[in-house]
């Protein structure tokens, strides 16, 4: 017989003696701007020491976990349970439907809280900067992904899918996700939380061929092996690669680290090796195709006879200077044209400045900082993509957010920040929002929206049917904004 | 031993009451009557050794969760091979005993920060009696490698 403590000692003491009275920890108040992974992970770490309020522009939380992760990758969204736990913490308060920058300023937040952490991510797009980019039929990947993931501002995207060939510029995981969603059998997609509207559009889609184009070579592809393998194994599709683009790869394989090596081996096997009999038959029967194309940079998007819709894309042919990750694409002067009716640019998200009072580096499109401490702005911090630029997965953001939270706590305890004087926190912000007619959505309000989405989804055999409209989300919540401080 | 005045043994009754309380989540102690456990020594990022016991068949992630071990960010995707945050490093000797690695695990493991030849994902390693006393090191960072330095140009 053995008895083990299952809870921590301090938890047990709290259980026995009742809640501790407000300690100096609870007295310190930090506000996080942005309710996505960066915001929640920053809050998770901060909650060990302070009170945290999370402000989010949309009524619904979770940012790119909800609007970026592909519908057929539901396991990646499991982090939502961690975030939900964080939101339920006694010292954490979520305020959705509050637009920092227009409903309340960063200055006002800095007056109300001991520290403010900006975690609002990257809502803009990098553009190619070439003529024809504004033609119909050209979409940033972020918007296309937002469309099939139910981001309210992308719900009217209505991408034209009545062409045979789609060209995706960029070879990262977002590009691979877009290719996979364009070519996945509808029967697979209809079991996911993809929006009904986009599912209907994809069911009518005539896109049969997707080319994923990168400016450098196979060894520089930014996508990773899991996503590439999903393309290789995608039912009813076959790979369409140009074997000559892989010349010399086998030699290069010998000296590269295992992750890059396995990825390149998979590409080589798919592009160059003659398939086994079963695979050969599978490819022959496939009605759709996809391929990677290398050493091509966009020069111009070409319109069709109507002058308004895309009909092709002109590309510069490159060569590589240098090797490995540091290699650079240099134009050779040669030019090529690809016919296509849909162009998706997947060349990167981009952070935008939301408040003139916040320092912003327009070249790197980040808030200039050191270990998350915003330069020349005491008490102001940043985490997530706003801090480092829009690269990395959820786990990368998690680490980056923990680091920022660590900086905040360090500054609060070292006396670097004035943490001793009382700050109003949400009691200071509530009246401002009320005066401005802003109705914040609480986390339990979100849980009602969540329930409604799941209910609608269940009717269709889907995990959820996302509400696409902010107004509809707000209508789902009875007595909205009844008690900002509750 | 507890006995009533008429000699009835009250211990089973007490055990039952504790079990009910435990199952209802109100009891701060766990009542463990089995000796069929495998001991694992975790070495955390500070170099501290933390010993925990799990049942054969439990994954190392199960063990970390059940024992409430405080490894920041461990197991973000809840054991579904969609991240690499349960990355653990073993000695060669232990690694050999851990069983085969699937392509699926390798694909995610390839993205782990500080990958070694004796790395595994904790959610895919299941305890067996042969692993009694094994050591598992939680590596420096859980940053996934799907980030490049070239974020702007």
TrEMBL record, chain A:
CC terms in the record's Gene Ontology section: mitochondrion
Chain sites annotated for binding NADP(+): 171-174, 215-216, 227, 392
Descriptive protein name: NADPH:adrenodoxin oxidoreductase, mitochondrial
Sequence similarity: Belongs to the ferredoxin--NADP reductase type 1 family.
Annotated FAD/NAD(P)-binding domain residues: 29-183
Entry keyword annotation includes Glycoprotein: no
Cofactor(s) the protein needs: FAD
EC supergroup of this enzyme: oxidoreductase
Pfam family, one: Pyr_redox_2
Keywords: Electron transport, FAD, Flavoprotein, Mitochondrion, NADP, Oxidoreductase, Transit peptide, Transport
SUPFAM superfamilies, per the entry: FAD/NAD(P)-binding domain, Nucleotide-binding domain
Organism taxonomic ancestry: Eukaryota, Metazoa, Chordata, Craniata, Vertebrata
EC number: 1.18.1.6
This protein's pathway: Steroid metabolism; cholesterol metabolism
Places the protein is found: Mitochondrion
Gene for this chain: fdxr
Listed GO biological process terms: cholesterol metabolic process
Residues where FAD binds: 38, 56, 64, 100, 385, 392-394
Domain of life: Eukaryota
From TrEMBL, chain B:
The name this protein goes by in its record: 2Fe-2S ferredoxin-type domain-containing protein
Gene Ontology cellular component annotations, sorted alphabetically: mitochondrial matrix
Cofactor(s) this protein cannot do without: [2Fe-2S] cluster
Keyword tags: 2Fe-2S, Electron transport, Iron, Iron-sulfur, Metal-binding, Mitochondrion, Transport
Domain 2Fe-2S ferredoxin-type: 38-142
Similarity-based family: Belongs to the adrenodoxin/putidaredoxin family.
Main subcellular localisation: mitochondrion
InterPro entries: 2Fe-2S_ferredoxin-like_sf (IPR036010), 2Fe-2S_ferredoxin-type (IPR001041), Adrenodoxin-like (IPR001055), Adrenodoxin_Fe-S_BS (IPR018298), Beta-grasp_dom_sf (IPR012675)
MF term (GO), any: 2 iron, 2 sulfur cluster binding
Compartments (UniProt record): Mitochondrion matrix
UniProt record, GO biological process: P450-containing electron transport chain
Organism of derivation: Gadus morhua (Atlantic cod)
């Amino acid at each position: 017989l053995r008895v083990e403590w299952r809870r921590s000692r301090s938890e047990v003491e709290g259980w026995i003696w009742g809640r501790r009275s407000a300690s100096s920890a609870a007295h310190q108040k930090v506000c996080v701007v942005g309710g996505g992974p960066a915001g929640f992970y920053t809050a998770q770490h901060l909650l060990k020491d302070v009170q945290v309020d999370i402000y989010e522009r949309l009524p619904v939380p979770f940012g790119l976990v909800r609007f970026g992760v592909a519908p057929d990758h539901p396991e990646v969204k499991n982090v939502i349970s961690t975030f939900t736990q964080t939101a339920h913490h006694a010292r954490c308060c979520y305020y959705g439907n509050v637009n920092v920058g227009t409903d309340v300023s960063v200055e006002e937040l800095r007056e109300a809280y001991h520290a403010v952490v900006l975690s609002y991510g990257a809502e803009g797009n990098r553009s190619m900067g070439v003529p024809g980019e504004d033609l119909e039929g050209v979409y940033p990947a972020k918007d296309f992904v937002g469309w099939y993931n139910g981001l309210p501002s992308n719900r009217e995207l209505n991408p034209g899918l009545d062409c045979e060939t789609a060209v995706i510029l960029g070879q990262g995981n977002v590009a691979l996700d877009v290719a996979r969603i364009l070519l996945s059998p509808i029967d697979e997609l209809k079991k996911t939380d993809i929006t009904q509207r986009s599912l209907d559009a994809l069911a009518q889609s005539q896109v049969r061929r997707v080319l994923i184009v990168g400016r450098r070579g196979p060894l520089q592809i930014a996508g990773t092996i899991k996503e590439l393998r999903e393309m290789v194994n995608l039912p009813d599709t076959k790979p369409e690669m140009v074997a000559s683009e892989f010349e010399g790869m086998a030699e290069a394989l010998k000296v590269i680290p295992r992750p890059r090596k396995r990825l390149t081996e998979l590409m080589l096997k798919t592009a160059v090796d003659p398939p086994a009999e079963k695979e050969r038959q599978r490819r022959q029967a496939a009605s759709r195709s996809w391929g990677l194309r290398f050493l091509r940079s966009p020069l111009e998007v070409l319109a069709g006879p109507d002058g308004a819709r895309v009909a092709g894309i002109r590309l510069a042919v490159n060569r590589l200077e240098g090797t490995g990750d540091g290699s650079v694409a240099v134009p050779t002067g040669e030019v090529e044209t690809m016919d296509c009716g849909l162009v998706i640019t997947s060349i990167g998200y981009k952070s935008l400045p939301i408040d003139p009072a916040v320092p912003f580096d327009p070249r790197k499109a980040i808030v200039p900082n050191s270990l998350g401490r915003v330069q020349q702005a005491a008490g102001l911090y940043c985490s997530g993509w706003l801090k480092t630029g829009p690269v990395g997965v959820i786990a990368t953001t998690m680490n980056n957010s923990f680091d920022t939270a660590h900086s905040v706590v360090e500054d609060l305890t070292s006396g670097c920040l004035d943490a001793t004087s009382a700050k109003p926190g949400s009691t200071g912000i509530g009246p401002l929002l009320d005066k401005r007619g802003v109705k914040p959505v609480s986390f339990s309000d979100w849980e009602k929206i969540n329930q409604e989405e799941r209910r609608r989804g269940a009717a269709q055999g889907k995990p959820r049917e996302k509400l696409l409209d902010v107004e509809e989300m707000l209508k789902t919540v009875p007595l909205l904004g009844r008690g900002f401080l509750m | 031993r507890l006995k009533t005045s008429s000699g009835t043994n009250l211990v089973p009754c007490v055990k039952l009451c504790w079990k009910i309380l435990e199952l209802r989540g109100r009891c701060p102690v766990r009542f463990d009557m089995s000796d069929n456990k495998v001991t694992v020594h975790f070495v955390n990022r500070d170099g501290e050794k933390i010993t925990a016991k799990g049942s054969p068949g439990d994954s190392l992630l199960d063990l970390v969760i059940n024992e409430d071990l405080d490894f920041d960010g461990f197991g973000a995707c809840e054991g579904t091979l969609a991240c690499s945050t349960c990355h653990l490093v073993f000695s060669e000797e232990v690694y050999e005993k851990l069983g085969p690695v699937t392509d699926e695990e390798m694909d995610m493991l390839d993205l782990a920060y500080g990958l070694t030849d004796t790395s595994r994902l904790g959610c895919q390693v299941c305890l067996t009696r042969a692993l009694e006393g094994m050591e598992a090191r939680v590596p420096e960072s859980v940053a996934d490698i799907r980030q490049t330095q070239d974020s702007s140009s």
